[in-house]
Task: structure prediction
Amino acid sequence: MSITGTSPHIKDTETPVPPRPKRFAGLGGQNVSLIGALVFVLVLFGLLNDNYLSLSNMQVIAEAATITGLLAIVQTVVIICGGLDISVGSQVGVASVVSAMVFTTSGSNPFVGMLAAIGVGLLVGLLNGVVIVYGRVNPTIATLAGLAAYKGLAQLLSDGRAQGYVLNDDVFVFLGRGKIAGLPVMVWILVVTALAVHLLLKYTDIGRNLYAIGGNDTAARLAGIGINKYLVFVYALIGVVCAVAGVLLTARTGSGQPVSGSEGLELKAITAAALGGCALKGGKGGIGGTLLAVALLGCLENGLTVEGINSFWQNVAQGALLVVAVVIQQRRSGERAVGLPH
Result:
C-alpha cells in the first residue's frame, strides 16, 4: 500500500523557515525601552514648551547631566562587581572644596588645586575599598558611613560655606564654560570617560573579571581571580572620578561647594545605573544603558523645571523610577516575591 497524499504530521520534507531577525536586537530590550521613554519625554515637553528642544536648552541639559553621568558610570562598574557606593555625592563635595581652597592658597594655580582634589579622591576611594575588603564591612554600610563622614569633612574644611573663587582663572572657566567643536568641554570629559570605561569592561581581562566577580564571587575566587585587589581598584577608581566631578562642579559654579550641587547625586547615580540595566546583585550592566538613563533623567528633570513644577516632585519622580527599575529587574529574573511561595 502506497501513500499518495502528504500527511500534515510529516515534517521531514518541509523546508525549514529561518528565524526572522529581531529588530534592534543589538540594542537590547532595556535600551530600546529607554530610547522610547526618552523620545516620549522629549516630545511631551517639546509640545508643552517651544524652547525645550532648542539647541541652547539641550546644551543646558547636557552640562547639568555631566556630573551625574560621571558618577553613574563608576556606579555601574561597582554594581557590576557586586558592590555599591552611596558616598559618591559626598566625595564630590570634598573634592570640590579641596580644589577651590588649594587653588586659592597656592597662588591661584589651577593645576595644583585639581591635582590636590584628585589625590584626596584617590585616598578616599582607597579608604572605602580597604574598609570594605579588609574590614569585611558590607559595601552599603561602609559607604553609608562614608556619605555622612565625607559630607561632614567637606563642611569642616569649608566651615559650611562655599570657598574660593575660580571664575577669574582661564583653566577653570574653560572647563566649566568652554566648548570644543561646538560641544561643552564637560560633555567631552563625560564622553571620553564613558568610552574608556566601556572599553575597559568589554575588551579587557579586567572587565571580564569584574563581571565574573559580580556574577559568582565563589567561582571567580576558585578561578584564581584576586577579588580583593579588584574591589580596592574599583573603589579607588570611583574616588578619582568623583574628584574629577568635584573639579567640574567647582568650575561650573565658580567656587568650592561642600554640599550644594553634590547632595543627592548618589540617588541619581544609582537610579541611572539601575534604569540602565545593572543588576543590583551584580554581574550584569553596561555603560550604554547607563548613559541613556542619565539622558532620560536629565531631560525629565529639566522639563519639570521648565514647566515650573515644584522641585520636590523631582525627588518623588527619581524615587519612583528607581523602584520601577528594580521591580522590572526582579520580574525579568523570575525571582519569587519575598515571603511568598514560588
About this structure: The mean pLDDT is 87. The longest strand covers residues 179-180. The two ends are 54 Å apart (CA to CA). The CA atoms of residues 14 and 29 lie 33 Å apart.
